[in-house]
Fold this protein.
Amino acid sequence: MSENRESIANRSWVSFSSPHLWAFCIATIALRLFVSNVGFFASPKHHDSLFWSAKQQGNILSICASLESVPGVVESDFITRDTSDRYEPGTNATLIKNATIFTGEISDGEKVVLTRSDILLDMGIVKAIGNLSLTYGDSNISVVYANGAWVTPGLIDLHSHLGVMSIPLTEGASDANSKKGPTVPWLRSIDALNTHDDGFKLAVAGGVTSVKVIPGNLNAIAGEAFMIKTRPTSKRSPSSMVIELPDLWNVTKQEGKYVPWRYLHQGCGEDLIVYNLTRMDTMWTLRSAYIEALQHKKVQDGYCADAQAGLWASLPTEFPRSVKWELLTEVLRGKVKVSVHCNEAVDIDSMIRLSNEFQFPISVFHQASEAWLVTNGVLNETWGGAPAVSLYATKHRSKRESFRGSEFAPRTLAEANISIAMQVRVSPAMSSRDLMFEAQQAYHFGLPAHLALASVTSVPAMIAGLSHRIGKLREGWDADVVMWDSHPLRVEATAAMVWIDGALQIPSPAYKPAMNIANPERRKMPTAPNWDKERLTASVWDGLPPLSNRKEDRKIVFYNVKEVWTRRSNGDIEEIFPSPTDPDMNGRGRVVVERGSLICVGGNDMCLVSEYDAVDYINLHGGSISPGLHAYGTSLGLEEIPSEPSTGSGHTIYNPFMDDIPQILHDVGGITRAADALTFGTRNAKVAYRSGVTAATSYLTGPQGAYPRVVLGLSTTFRTGSAHSMQYGAVIQDVTALHISIAMPTVGKDHVGVSDQVAALRRLLFGWESTDTETGLWFKRAAEGEVPLVINVNNADIMTTLLLLKGEVEDRIGSRMRMVFSGATEAHLLAPEISNSGVGIILNSLKPYPTTWDGRRILAGPPVTNDTTLSTLLKHGVTVGMGMKGPQMAQIMRFDLASIAFQALKSMDRLEVLALASRNLDILLGVREVNRDVVVYDGGSLFDLSSKAIAVISPQRQGVDMFGA
């Protein structure tokens, strides 16, 4: 039998060597390939449920389950960590003794401020708060004695372009705005983050420890933003700066415990004009993008529904993903914090409707100039609940859409239970370093102190979904800490020490500025004025109150006056009360004013007025009277809105290096006179006037964003409170100075070389242009010293060339030129030479920012350097004036002066500080008529955050302008 079987087997084998064998083999291979998911007879994209492995099914089901996961963390789980994931090995522990701690809490009144308390930082986290012992284990520990100084959480800026609009600006490092279309949700700011941005160290100098780096505002959907820490890391990479990496990168994540938030930034309104989009176009573009994301979400949800139902045979081999619509799909799943850059109510409302249409929450509206006008339920209609609002305190009206912005917006929104975060103005020239300054201004205009501090600490942390680790000082939170040399809401407050993740950043190990944290007076919280009437009026007038003034011709008696400063006939400032011989009069003086003149100044028992006279008595509550301020360097009084040509003289201003000057002008330089374009009664001028700025010198600069002009024309000086140019005293000086600009090429603009600019200037000053033309006439007068030549210049090497040119001109024609450098970021490098040449300086900023390459060598000032550009120039006897960056800045000019007054107590008295924005500017600009208007402040001096201007006394106009609500 066995033989038969063997013979049969042999015969079978032999028979299969025929074509039957090949058929059998092919069938067997095909079956094996089919079973292994690559069969010739099965679809390459589908499986039968019999052939899915358990592991493959598990992976798909895990992905589907993750779609429903909710971002966030349970604080109790997170704060039990012993070491921060951001801890840098080798960092010493730090014990801060005897501090006044603002914890960041705003709901529990007992925990808002902890006095005379200690705080221990170790392993990158806050280990303990309370009355702590000096000993702490076996670790190395640094002990800092705060002596009662204020300590806050590290500040958080939610609207930053740090690293993507990096400074100094260059063609290769300006990555904020994509030009590939209005909706680009697939872009990520982390891919452009420049770790060498000079802005990071300046942000830290302002106490800013975390920022949200957003793409630009010119896209309807700009892309993914990232929350980062501002300190450099040992890895020196952008990824290592990110606070919490998203799931797709976070290789060390703990499965099932924590899903980090992601961030999307959107824009709307005027900015989309770069794509020729109207508001209707923009909303259609947004809807189209969200419809794409919704369809993608439905595909994923359908896939998971089949997988969870066990219908494996119908499923593709790969989970459906779209790189383009992945982040927007996550938005629809509620896993993304969406920020929207919008100003007007129409845009805010449109975005709220979009959120309801596609059912996604909005985390925060940025800038939101009109949000304060729609607090009556509109914001609460957002899908998922009312968003927060991030905005700046002042500096509105740069665009039409921000024209109704108000300094009272933060308080109004807070009273409507809307969470408030402060931000700096969106511009590379405005540093995150100024973030606390925004909180200080918001407090001055009515935002409660604890909310003002929270607006830059715990509230932005909450908005970002990171309140479990930053924004507060609690045990287990990240060790991001700032110690201030003053109460943080005082305008002079400087970050004395800054720790990020427990590592000391300020002062740097290489340089330690001398900071004074022991002054108990500076630790007191400043008081704020009462703005109830002004706020109500602004609201009633839909953000545009008339700002009218009541002129008083009869006698007015101001009493309880602390001090009175006036200007002499030669322009010098003098203190006439209190008398040096009777210092006890301080705070109880009396001033009688009649027809704009101070007819009596003395103690309260002096300057008595007859009971038969018609008199108004006004209590100044320890207030003061001082000379009006002088604004320089902006288009104040030349236009209503800087970005709107239709609101002023228009923006067609010829550049002789780029344009053919029309023959009708018969002028090679195309020189214009700003006086011909004066526009009185603009809102910026009215706000400036009511803020103590009574005079302004302005010149035509051309449109924003255009190529820079070299010849800027002739400036004019006028009174900000005048109604029109024919009103008596309205125009102080028809022609003030001749203005030009000499600079290196600007990013993205056509530009003339520096040597060409200087060559043209040399020719014009040597007198080679006929004086029959405006150009020839005024450059001749500038060369002869008849009018000042004011040059916008930042670079020290260009300044050197100009100083040499000044000498050439003076030697050639035997004159003495009156040259002034405006801007002058790098002037500190040439202070002795500038002084010896008799050149004056007008600084545009007290906290310089290296925006462009030709002004990158800044002297940052405390806490980075002990000296400032101002102190260096004054030390060498240079006459210095203070300018501004924009017309909106006039409202807060006195806050800048206050900061100088407190920081320079040993080197400058207050009269010298006031001269920076009055007498010195008059001298530098050649203003011949002394502006003798004086401003009346209630509740303190112009240097006090507690005071506000209530009137202007004008001898020229023979009356008193009383400011109504």
Q: What stands out?
A: The longest helix spans residues 279-308. Residues 546-627+932-965 form a domain with the Urease, subunit C; domain 1 fold (CATH 2.30.40.10).
